[in-house]
Amino acid sequence: MAAGLELLYMSVAQNLSAAQDALLCFIHWEMVVHGYRCLGTGDQPGENERKSEMLPSGWNSNKELYSLRYKSQDGISHILLKAIMVENTMILNAMDPKLEQVVDVTLKVADYVNSDCLDSFEKVYKNSAELSSLLLSRIISAFTGPKEKPRAMRDSPQSHDPFRSPPHHPHTNPQPNWPDPLGPFAAGGADLDPLGGRSGGGMIVDPLRSGFPRAGFDSSSGILSHLPPGAVPPGARFDPFGPMSSSRPGPDPDHLSPPGYDDMFM
């Protein structure tokens, strides 16, 4: 239980005549503990108001409706706190008039106050820790500015989020990582290249690579005695023809001579 609540309770004990009085006294002290001071009763400010930790005069004159105004010590937050009794339940409503922000919580009085022990501070409250936590999470925190993250959290890298969009850098233009080094539009290049020079395969068998290791063939360099250099555009589909040797092989000595081979007019 928050220190100082007993002193507050004893200062108003003679005016406590209902269980909801004791409950509102507890709520008031929670506001004080978390940096608020009471300005007075009612919806509108009065003359010569000052911030105080004490409950103002006439705060419990109406047992069905309590209305208190608070201001944070830094002067930023203003809260109009109203407690409306509906049978044995208190509906606690808090609003910042400037921000038009409203929050509320419903409290069953019997869960937190022993109505038969209003004259004994040691026995009057129960489930105090639960009530404090509920008021902080549902009422007070709603009007508190965002807390700064601990340094360890600020310095640590963000965890991977598969749904997070990658950061946008408008001044950078990274090059695409194309799988084919010949260009982004070379889809199916392996099938369109008959010699398989792009990605290790083609539609036809390269006669120059039929099981025998030899240097690659560049059709754009021309074919000696067949095509001049540049006759075949680089990368164009080309089926080589004829022998690739620089000289024609001579006749085999075992071949038969054709009829009339010694006829000069043949």
Task: Summarize the helices and strands and which ones pair or pack.
Blueprint: H1 5-12, H2 19-33, E1 36-41, E2 65-72, E3 78-86, E4 89-96, E5 101-108, H3 121-124, H4 128-138, H5 151-155, H6 189-192
Antiparallel strand pairs: 1-2, 2-3, 3-4, 4-5
Keywords:
266 residues; alpha+beta; Protein Transport Mog1p, Chain A; 5-stranded antiparallel sheet
Helix content: 10-25%
**CATH-assigned fold name of the domain at 5-143:** Protein Transport Mog1p, Chain A
CATH architecture of the domain at 5-143: 3-Layer(aba) Sandwich
What does the main sheet amount to?
A: 5 strands, antiparallel
The rounded Rg comes to 47 Å
Q: Average pLDDT across residues? A: 76
Low-confidence stretches: 147-157, 208-215
Strand content: 5-15%
CATH class of the domain at 5-143: Alpha Beta
| Distance between the first and last residues' Cα | 128 Å
Subcellular location: Cytoplasm; Endoplasmic reticulum
Protein name: Proteasome inhibitor PI31 subunit
Function: Plays an important role in control of proteasome function. Inhibits the hydrolysis of protein and peptide substrates by the 20S proteasome. Also inhibits the activation of the proteasome by the proteasome regulatory proteins PA700 and PA28.
InterPro entries: PI31-like, PI31_Prot_C, PI31_Prot_N
